[in-house]
Design a protein that fits this description.
There is one protein chain. The protein is an alpha+beta fold and 353 residues long. Helix content is 21%, strand content 32%. The chain is built from 7 helices and 19 strands. The strands form 3 sheets. Strands 3, 4, 5, 6, 7, 8, 9, 10, 11, 12, 14, 17 and 19 form a 13-stranded mixed β-sheet that branches. Strand 15 and strand 16 form a beta hairpin. Helix 1 packs across helix 6. It is globular. The chain starts with 5 loop residues before the first strand and ends in a 22-residue tail after the last helix.
């Protein structure tokens, strides 16, 4: 048995033990209690951090994290696993939105945070200081929020470090999710991008749409997490064969240029949203005051991986994000790609994964 005690704030788990509780985070003008579970294995291995509830209105990741906490036992674990099912309590319990009701900040734009900034910036800094820093692997769980349709995918950022990129690519392919989207640079304020810049193998995992919380989706999510933990050697391997993957890169992000009522032209069937060509009509925004219509066209071709499903949108809201199959010869010419994620509704900036 290894001899390292696992600690987050006041919570501790000695070797071969499991501890659940809440850790208080001081955020300047307020404090929040962050739920954390520590599983300290009986044998040496990697430290894996899993977060959910970074955004409000994303229920499946929170449910899956809670189910995983109940399943994992120290006697089965090599290394250490830290699970935080509700990383942003104010957004989850009060806002149910990507932005915090406290200061209007989307936390997945400001990682690794600022300990002297706004409450949300301080929370981002707290999460990195207490959870992410020191991890070997970081998995941030998301889904399409209550106003968003989404096709399941895993995303990660290329860093230019061959060993780190290879390890992260293998991790991304281990969840049993067919589509993997590469970000060409590790910049931006997203959690996994900030972790990648610190040399941590980090992925974004998106499963579920419209804030789903059904048991079947949660179980599918937990199964993917167990596959990844087996791949990492945290859990004993089984006989399951690796699932085939398809690699993509973002081709365009579409944001609203007017405020009004959003009527998309694309259909959503399960996890399939559709594909469009450059110039295709994606939908229209109608001004409820005078009925004027603003047509929205695809700035590039590609498959829609996530899109706005809600009726009301404000100027700058993200309406859709498109990706195309990965082609290193063209994808490295980043000037040709209009990257998604600069609007208020997405998880990414340049590009989403």
């Amino acid at each position: 048995m290894h001899e390292t005690t696992l600690s987050v704030g006041s919570l501790q788990a000695g070797p071969g033990t499991k501890t659940r509780g809440a850790v208080r985070a001081e955020l300047g003008t307020l404090t929040v209690d962050i739920p954390v579970t520590l599983i300290n294995g009986t044998r040496p291995g990697p430290r894996v951090v899993i977060t959910a509830g970074v955004h409000g209105g994303e229920f499946t990741p929170i449910d899956a994290a809670a189910r995983l906490m109940a399943l994992l036992e120290p006697g089965e674990v090599r290394g250490q696993v830290i699970i935080c099912p509700v990383a942003n309590p104010k957004a989850v319990y009060q806002g149910r939105l990507n932005v915090s009701p406290i200061d209007g900040v989307n936390i997945n734009r400001v990682f690794p945070g600022d300990p002297d900034g706004s409450p949300t910036e301080r929370l981002a800094a707290w999460l990195f200081t207490h959870l992410v820093d020191g991890a070997d692997v970081y998995v941030d769980l998301h889904c399409g929020g209550i106003d968003q349709v989404l096709r399941d995918f895993v995303g990660y950022r290329l860093t230019g470090d061959p060993d780190l990129d290879k390890a992260t690519a293998a991790l991304a392919g281990s969840f049993g999710i067919e589509d993997v989207i590469l970000g060409l640079k590790p910049d931006g304020g997203n959690s996994h991008a900030a972790a990648a810049r610190r040399g941590i193998s980090a992925v974004l995992v998106e499963v579920g749409a419209l804030g789903q919380r059904d048991a079947a989706t949660a179980r599918r999510r937990v199964d993917g997490l167990l596959r990844a933990l087996r791949h990492l050697g945290v859990l004993d391997p089984d006989d399951s064969a690796p699932a085939p993957i398809r690699e993509w890169v973002w081709s365009a992000g579409v944001t609203a240029e007017a405020t009004g009522l959003w009527y998309p032209e694309f259909s959503f069937d399960g996890d399939v949203i559709g594909e469009v060509a450059e110039g295709d009509v994606l939908g229209r925004i109608v001004d409820p005051a005078d009925g004027q219509e603003h047509m929205v066209h695809a700035p590039a071709g590609g498959r829609i991986f996530y899109a706005m499903h809600g009726l009301t949108v404000a100027t700058g809201a993200e309406l859709a994000a498109l990706a195309v199959p990965w082609d290193p010869d063209t994808a490295t010419r980043t000037g040709t790609l209009r990257t998604p994620g600069t609007g208020v509704g997405s998880d990414e900036a340049d590009p989403r994964p």
